[in-house]
Amino acid sequence: MLKPVDSLSAPEAAAELERLAAEIAGHDRHYHEQDAPIISDAEYDALRLRNEAIEARFPELIRADSPSRRVGAVASEKFAKVRHAVPMLSLSNGFSTEDVNDFVGRIRRFLNLSESEPVGVTAEPKIDGLSISIRYENRKLVQAATRGDGFEGENVTANVLTMQSVPRRLAASAPDLIEVRGEIYMSHKDFAALNEKQIQEGERPFANPRNAAAGSLRQLDPEITKSRPLKFFAYAWGEAPDLPAKTQWDVIQAFASWGLPTNPLMKLCSSIEELLAHYRHIEMLRSELGYDIDGVVYKVNRLDWQQRLGFVSRSPRWGLAHKFSAEKATTVLEKIDIQVGRTGALTPVARLKPVTVGGVVVTNATLHNEDEIARKDIREGDTVTVQRAGDVIPQILGYIPEKRPENSQPYPFPAECPVCKSHAVREERASGKLDAVRRCTGGLICAAQRVERLKHFASRNAFDIEGLGDKIIAEFYADELIQWPHDIFTLEERDRTSLKRLKNREGWGEASVRKLFDAIDERRSIALDRFIFALGIRHVGETTARALARHYHTAEAFREQMIAAADLDGEHWQELNAIDGIGEIVAEALVQFFGEPHNRDVVDELLKHVKVTPLEARSTSSPVAGKTVVFTGALERMTREEAKAMAERLGAKVSGSVSKKTDLLVAGPGAGSKLKDAQKYGVEVIDENGWFDLTSSPAVAGEEGAPTKLG
Ligand code: IVH
Q: Which of 173, 423, 469, 591 is paired with 410 by a 20 to 30 Å CA distance?
């Protein structure tokens, strides 16, 4: 007999989570890899639900290998990897008319277009399937790869070759080389028929058409893929040295003329009103389309503009996914927990009675901050409406008044840190308004902040130490094996002389300990951007870390300059603020971080154990790669923002002031003191046309992620 979740003790819960992880993983293998489940769906769902219910009660016990962390099909080792010649990036999302206005406004500003200049934008359905890149050489399909992490996907060529809707050959008018990108999906009708067949054959039905399409494509045996009715729409491209046209619209028309399936609902619009009208039109047709879509994708039509607009982080400035509003469900909010983040932020999390929203079981939802709870008057015990959109954390929209319990009380947001009991305060912003977030003032005396910092440090996009997941960090922290980031790098050495050897810990053995030490050793050398990101400085995300790494090159220089930047009248503070993408808030956070002696100690201790390597320049082929460039005066062919972005794309560092370290000054009409400084230091000076002559040499075409140059 299983004990009710409510009466489990923590050790019992831990043991059960371990058992459930193993059992569910076993069933997943039967299901995904052997295509032969050995239990019914209901039994399987019950296992997962129990796992989630226990996790909801004991969030600190959530395992790194928990089934709730694995989404979709198991990441597989079974397909060969393919490196994408041009990364497969994603679109940023918009949800409202305002977001669409902002999108078009941003484009206008970036390109410095006059109000009267029309901006052509295509609008087409956002297909809810899985994206694929299909390479044609001499018009023959030679390779197909899934998106994977955007840089490396799985080679599914044999499977795609079985799909009727993907041509094996393109028409004679197609170029010698092109990577066609688009979405593989399954229609509602085919999905229903497939599921019926699955059930008849005693197999587990798929949760939705997207899963069915993904599961069908990622089959080791292409014969299985062949038996599954997968469809395809082409809507973009990767490597394409000679594109057939100069606009998005015309390229897609050419795709169609070569025999590729394209979506009939694509429309070329010339105003925001037209975009929104087409959005509503597609939304209205949504239920009749016969396949799943989750929004409308907008793309700037002119490809030369797309090229100029380029990318921010991992999304193009020239595109937007305007999503439909999300799916909703109601459930009981059992409890509000307060989590303490690595920068001390107290975040309220709603623990929910498990409920299925759009095919996914939801047990937690974000409540954002205390104002949000007060504004919506959300209380423990309420029946609430939960919304889930895509992969974002589910949100609570509001409560249902008729279902509010009689004794219900407004939620009192704590004024002290639930972990270290330090005061929790809301900082006053420069504007005089209170910050939305209440923060624990305990800093590194707060165990929660320290553990969170350690988790962040070892996490995937930071040091990425395999085997040192959140749960292990929490355990090692509690047992005082790891208190500071550098402790990770002395773990093995200390273990050798320890009385409590790691290999004797419960759940560990000789082999797993060796594996962990090896994983740690692999990270004794690390790129500077990851190093900076790993420090967990407030407001310093991956993009900012990269900008800092590009600018300062070495960890030592970065450290010295951040300390020196504390002098707000000095050149180092100015230099920091002049880096593209670094605003005052980030600059202040950096100075504050390095102003704390214990943070400097953390960095110094780390540098004794790890070798930090400079970031590779983004473009090594461009004539301005690695150079420090300053723009001054009026620019006529591009906006300042565009100039900066272009220079950085070409591997240059953009600075706001001229010093002896400056390599190049691009001076437009009206240039003043910077021009004088350049003459004083003997810095090369060119005008805007000179800049274009310099950078438009063939070597710089087709930079990272940008659409390839027109042929
Ligand atoms: S264009 C730079 N067009 O949405 C990315 N994407 O977040 C260009 N998708 O991974 C993508 N329908 O899987 C584009 N009509 C459409 C799309 C579409 C679905 C997916 C695609 C991509 C994701 C973007």
A: 423
Burial class of residue 603 in the structure, from the number of CB atoms within 10 Å of its CB (0-12 exposed, 13-18 middle, 19+ buried): buried
Q: How far is the CA of 128 from the centre of ligand 1 (A)?
A: 9
Alpha-carbon distance 671 to 685, whole Å? 11
Q: What is the pLDDT of residues 663-687, one digit of tens each?
A: 999 998 888 899 999 999 999 999 9
Query: Residue 421: which pLDDT band, with cuts at 50, 70 and 90?
Result: very high
666 pocket-lining for ligand 1 (C-beta < 6 Å):
no
The per-residue pLDDT of the chain, averaged, comes to 88
- 696 and 588 part of one domain: no
Look at the block and give the residue holding tokens 């004797």: 504
Q: What is the pLDDT of residues 6-59, one digit of tens each?
A: 888 888 999 999 999 888 888 877 665 554 667 766 677 778 888 888 988 887
Verify that 301 and 169 share a domain, yes or no: yes
- What whole-number distance in Å separates Cα of residue 202 and Cα of residue 47? 19
Whether 251 contacts 235, CB under 8 Å: no
What spacing in Å lies between the alpha carbon of 552 and ligand 1's midpoint? 35
pLDDT higher than 60, residue 699: no
Range of the domain at 695: 628-701
CB neighbours of residue 503 within 10 Å: 12
Same domain, 156 and 265: yes
As beta bridge partners, residue 185 has 231
Asked whether 703 lines ligand 1 (CB < 6 A), one says: no
The pTM assigned to this predicted structure is 0.52
Number of domains present in the structure of the chain = 3
**Residues 567 and 646 placed together within one structural domain of the fold:** no
Q: Indicate if the pLDDT at residue 600 is higher than 80.
A: yes
Q: Using a 6 Å cutoff on CB, does residue 664 contact ligand 1? A: no
Ligand 1 pocket: which of 84, 297, 301, 391 to mutate (most atoms <8 Å of CB)?
Answer: 297
Q: Looking at ligand 1, which atom is closest to the CA of residue 125?
A: 15
* 208 falls within a domain: yes
pLDDT at residue 709, rounded to an integer = 30
Closest ligand 1 atom to 316 CA: 2
Q: Is the CB of 323 under 6 A from ligand 1?
A: no
